[in-house]
């Protein structure tokens, strides 16, 4: 059950912080990309720590990101690392090549790091556990890790390609899809992962409001790395460690790509079709997960 504390710490706090941070960095630097990246990383991480701090204290919550206790704690590292590829890419042609290498490496690292040590990728032992029938073979591991990485890299590329097209609309739609994902994850059996997506929703909403207010010409593409690490990471966790169906995860990824990525830029019908696709996919996933939830309760 979502409490008032959940809403304040995982929703209102990161949302207000994102709005204030993006506005503040923009006023001081007039660099839209830096404003987006700083706001997304700071707001998402502080939202995570605020929720974790209940019962254990702020310092203990922050220390969980350094002394990892569970897979979701790795999201802190992944979100921070997500900043570097796009930050490096501005330094010329060779830097852009290096940036793509970093993006690919990070998108492979995400599923491996989140799943390493789990039943899917157990730690090697001298005596294999015959009861762990969920462990992947080498081929299965390559298939899953490579497939997840390919999807994330593709979406990252679409975000980058959309840099100059409808930034404020894309900011709004990414927040909408993230909200649908948060509801879906919560209905699929994990309030914890739903809360993580809720923090991202609040962060994107705050950034979208500030970006529209200051009329910035950059959207979520400016912080594509940390946004995708948070969004993709939460979906990976929810699918493999909760009960998020693969079909729902796939539909949410498509909706997120359409919301924030390149989508037939320059065509008159691009904007209404983008909005329609996002609304239909987001609504469909929420409706289906809601029916699953009701059926499970009955």
Instruction: Specify the oligomeric state.
Output: single chain
Characterize the main sheet: none
Q: Radius of gyration over alpha carbons?
A: 19 Å
**Gap from first CA to last CA:** 18 Å
Q: Percent range for helical residues?
A: over 70%
Q: Any low-confidence stretches, pLDDT <50, length ≥5?
A: none
Cα shape? globular
Structural domain tally: 1
Number of DSSP strand runs: 0
Which structural class is indicated by helix and strand composition? Answer: mainly alpha
- Roughly what fraction of the amino acids lie in strands? under 5%
Order of helices and strands: HHHHHHHHHHHH
Number of helices: 12
Q: Report the mean per-residue pLDDT as an integer.
A: 91
Explain how this protein is built.
Helices cover 73% and strands 0% of the residues. The protein is mainly alpha-helical and 298 residues long. The chain has one domain. The chain is globular and about 45 Å long. The model has no long low-confidence stretch (mean pLDDT 91). Keywords: Membrane, Transmembrane, Transmembrane helix.
Properties at a glance:
single chain; about 300 residues; mainly alpha; 12 helices; about 0% strand
């Amino acid at each position: 059950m979502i409490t008032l504390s959940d809403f304040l710490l995982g929703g209102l706090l990161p949302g207000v912080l994102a709005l204030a941070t993006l506005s503040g960095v923009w006023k001081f630097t007039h660099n839209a990309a830096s404003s987006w990246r700083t706001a997304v990383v700071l707001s998402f991480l502080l939202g995570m720590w605020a929720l974790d701090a209940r019962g254990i204290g702020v310092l203990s919550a922050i220390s969980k990101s350094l002394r990892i206790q569970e897979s979701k704690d790795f999201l802190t590292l992944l979100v921070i690392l997500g900043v570097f590829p796009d930050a490096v890419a501005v330094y010329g042609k060779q830097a852009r090549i290096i940036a793509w290498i970093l993006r690919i490496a990070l998108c492979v690292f995400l599923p491996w790091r989140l799943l390493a040590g789990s039943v899917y990728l157990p730690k090697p032992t001298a005596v294999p556990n015959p009861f762990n029938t969920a462990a992947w073979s080498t081929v299965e591991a390559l298939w899953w890790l490579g497939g997840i990485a390919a999807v994330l890299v593709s979406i990252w590329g679409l975000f980058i390609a959309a840099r100059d097209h409808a930034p404020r609309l894309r900011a709004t739609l990414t927040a909408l899809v993230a909200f649908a994902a948060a509801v879906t994850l919560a209905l699929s059996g994990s309030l914890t992962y739903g809360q993580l997506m809720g923090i991202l929703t609040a962060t994107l909403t705050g950034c979208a409001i500030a970006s529209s207010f200051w009329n910035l010409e950059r959207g979520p593409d400016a912080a594509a790395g940390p946004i995708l690490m948070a969004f993709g990471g939460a979906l990976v966790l929810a699918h493999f460690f909760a009960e998020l169906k693969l079909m729902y995860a796939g539909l949410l990824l498509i909706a997120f790509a359409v919301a924030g990525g390149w989508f037939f830029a320059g065509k008159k019908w691009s904007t209404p079709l983008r909005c329609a696709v996002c609304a239909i996919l987001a609504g469909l996933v929420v409706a289906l997960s809601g029916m699953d939830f009701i059926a499970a309760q009955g």
